[in-house]
Design goal:
Belongs to the TRAFAC class myosin-kinesin ATPase superfamily. Kinesin family. InterPro entries: Kinesin-like_fam (IPR027640), Kinesin_motor_dom (IPR001752), Kinesin_motor_dom_sf (IPR036961), P-loop_NTPase (IPR027417). The chain is of the alpha+beta class. The protein has helices at about 20-25, 60-75, 95, 105-120, 175-190, 245-270, 285-295, 315-325, 345-415, 430-450, 455-485, 490-520, 530-614, and strands spanning about 5-10, 10-15, 30-35, 40, 45-50, 50-55, 80-85, 100, 105, 125-135, 140-145, 155, 160-165, 170, 190, 200, 205-215, 220-230, 300-305, 330-335, 335-340. Strands 2, 6, 7, 10, 11, 14, 17, 18, 19 and 21 form a 10-stranded mixed sheet that branches. Strands 3-4-5 form a 3-stranded antiparallel sheet, covered by helices on one side. A two-stranded antiparallel ribbon has the order 1-20. Helix 9 packs antiparallel against helix 13 (about 530-614).
Length: about 625
């Protein structure tokens, strides 16, 4: 059994200042506050005492400090609470309950802020807040948080008492969220204009806050408290709407007065302990919902709103009598505690625990799958890198082999190049050099001799024959020297010039001699002269043969020069190819280094994951 306390319903009266309509009509104040808790009639002898009486200048915040804070604290501790305003139309009930949010908030927003303020100061506890907002209009219960839910039904539960079937309950985690729900519900509430109020509530509204709490350690029981914040419609007489009131307004007035009358009867029966008559809770939806609170289930605080104007004397007197009867009601308040899975917070915690366990299992499964997938990916990646490394190594070996072949080809080509740096000509012996110089000198001398006019024609033939033999020997020697050493190109070219000049001179002389012989008489020819034609023809043949040999040698020299130039070009091209291949080798070396580094990183990562897995 939960904790119990015995106390009376807290009742206070708030006096509203005269409004513009009352001042214009010449209304006068006939009620005044006396002390902190008494109100009396100025001209009469009637007076009433309550827990508190608030004058026209009292702010709603002051009323909350006395009437509201105690109820909120009880709710946080696990006791049900109920705060409602009662009074005639236009007496200030809605202003007291809701007020103006930014400048002068009412009891409802002040209660919400105080709930979350106390939660912040309650260390070692966990809370779950739910909110519902309904109105009772023409005895029909409508959901203000869901306008589509109309005419909801009531049901009685042994654990939670009277409950509304299917009502919307929103879980809230901040005062801002609760106030947003409150503002949304206010937009759906039904109001209308009356003679006393331009925007009069045509329904009773109940804003319910359910507070579940439990200690984070120790005892696992959960305290569940419901706070009902009620703004009642005003009690009215037929002249409130005037003679032009519609049938809809008349119907509203009928149901409002009926429910308020039933509430008054319930309060009267509860305040009279000697009266054993049954209490008519079921006569209206309002009293049915208030039954748990009025029977002692809740800490109840009532604020009765009145007008001090003489025009509202009867309504004010009725309200004061209602407040006087309510103050006599004594209640036994019991703390609401439940165990096990009955509390929603326990259900939520169990669901959270189950979800967390499922989440951990899923995370472990995902981690395992990720590890498996990662290991597979690593294995595939390592295999790919290994294959790539092997391909790179093969390419590198191929390029190195190609580089070696190019180097060998380069060396072979370089061996064909003749220059002062890489070719040392054969040392020419003094005898050979003397012979070459002698050939050169004798060639020049013989050429000059042939052209000399000191010789006679008959002496020319033996000399020409001798000269031709000399030139033939010299040419043969030049061929031998050329075969011995290719570095003698310049010498050969120089001697070729002398040789050609000598051959030309001999040929000219032979032609001259032939002309002289043809013009000479036949009788002058001696036996020796008969050999001249044969010698002449022979000399021409020798000269022609020597000329062909010289031309052939010159062609050979030109061809050799052309081949050397081609080899130079080929060598230059091979040098460029080698440089390009070297660049490719450097690039492949860099790629191979990168592959090796990546392979090393993957191996380290694989070892780390294997160690973590172990």
């Amino acid at each position: 059994m939960g904790e119990r306390t015995i106390e009376n319903i807290s009742v206070s009266v708030r006096i509203r200042p005269l409004n513009q309509r009352e001042l214009t009509s010449g209304g006068e104040k006939i009620w005044e506050k006396v002390g902190e808790s008494e109100i009396k009639e100025k001209a009469g002898a009637r007076s009433f005492a309550y827990d508190r009486v608030y004058s026209e200048n009292t702010e709603t915040g002051e009323i909350f400090e006395y009437q509201g804070v105690q109820v909120i604290e009880k709710c946080i501790a696990g006791f049900n609470g109920c705060i409602f305003c009662y009074g005639q139309t236009g007496s200030g009930k809605t202003h007291t309950m809701h007020g103006i949010r930014k400048t002068n908030p009412g009891l409802v927003p002040l209660s919400i802020d105080h709930i979350f303020s106390m939660i912040q100061r309650s260390s070692g506890k966990e809370f779950l807040i739910r909110c519902a907002y309904i109105e009772i209009y023409n005895e029909s219960i409508n959901d203000l948080l869901n306008p589509n839910l109309l005419n909801l039904q009531l049901a009685e539960d042994k654990r939670s008492g009277i409950k509304i079937v299917g009502v919307t309950e929103e879980v809230c985690t901040s005062s801002h969220q609760v106030n947003s729900l409150l503002a949304m519900g206010e937009k759906h509430r039904i109001t209308a204009s009356t003679n006393f109020n331009q925007r009069s509530s045509r329904s009773h509204s109940i804003f319910r806050v359910i507070v579940e709490s439990k200690n984070t350690s120790g005892k696992s029981d959960v305290a569940i408290a419901a706070l009902n914040l009620i703004d009642l419609a005003g009690s009215e007489s037929a002249d409130v709407h005037g003679p032009s009131a519609s049938s809809a307004r008349s119907k509203e007035m009928k149901y409002i007065n009926r429910s308020l009358l039933t509430l008054g009867t319930v309060i009267m029966r509860l305040s009279d302990k000697k009266n054993s008559a049954p209490i008519p809770y079921r006569d209206s939806k309002l009293t049915r919902l208030l039954q748990p609170a009025l029977e002692g289930d809740s800490k109840v605080s009532i604020v009765c709103n009145i007008s001090s104007c003489n025009d509202a004397y009867d309504e004010t007197l009725s309200t004061l009598k209602f407040a006087q009867r309510a103050k006599k009601i004594q209640q036994v308040i019991v703390k609401n505690e439940v165990t096990g899975s009955k509390a929603l917070i326990v259900k939520y915690e169990k669901e959270i625990s189950e979800l967390q366990e499922r989440l951990r299992e899923m995370e472990m499964k995902m981690v395992q799958e990720e590890k498996t997938a990662m290991n597979m990916n690593l294995s595939k990646e390592m295999l790919m890198l290994q294959e790539e490394k092997e391909r790179a190594d093969a390419r590198l070996d191929s390029i190195l082999q190609e580089k070696l072949q190019l180097k060998q080809e380069l060396e072979r080509l370089k061996s064909f190049i003749i220059s002062a740096e890489n070719v040392k000509p054969k040392p020419i012996e003094k005898d050979d050099k003397s012979r070459k110089d002698s050939i050169h000198k004798h060639s020049a001398a013989h050429s000059r001799t042939i052209l000399s006019s000191e010789f006679r024609p008959e002496d020319t033939e033996p000399l020409l024959t001798k000269n031709l033999d000399f030139m033939q020997n010299r040419f043969s020697r030049m061929i031998d020297l050329n075969n011995e050493d290719s570095s003698n190109f310049s010498l050969l070219e120089r001697n070729d010039t002398y040789l050609l000049n000598g051959i030309d001179n001999v040929e000219n002389e032979l032609l001259r001699m032939g002309t002289q012989k043809e013009s000479a008489p036949t009788t002058q020819i001696n036996p020796v002269e008969t050999k001249v034609p044969a010698t002449y023809e022979e000399c021409l043949k020798i000269i022609e043969e020597q000329r062909r040999m010289i031309d052939s040698q010159k062609n050979m020299l030109d061809q050799f020069k052309y081949e050397n130039e081609a080899k130079d070009l080929a060598l230059l091209k091979f040098s460029k190819d080698i440089e390009e291949k070297q660049d490719q080798i450097d690039l492949l070396n860099d790629e191979l280094t990168l592959c090796r580094n990546n392979l090393t990183k993957l191996q380290v990562a694989n070892r780390f994951r294997q160690s973590v897995k172990k």
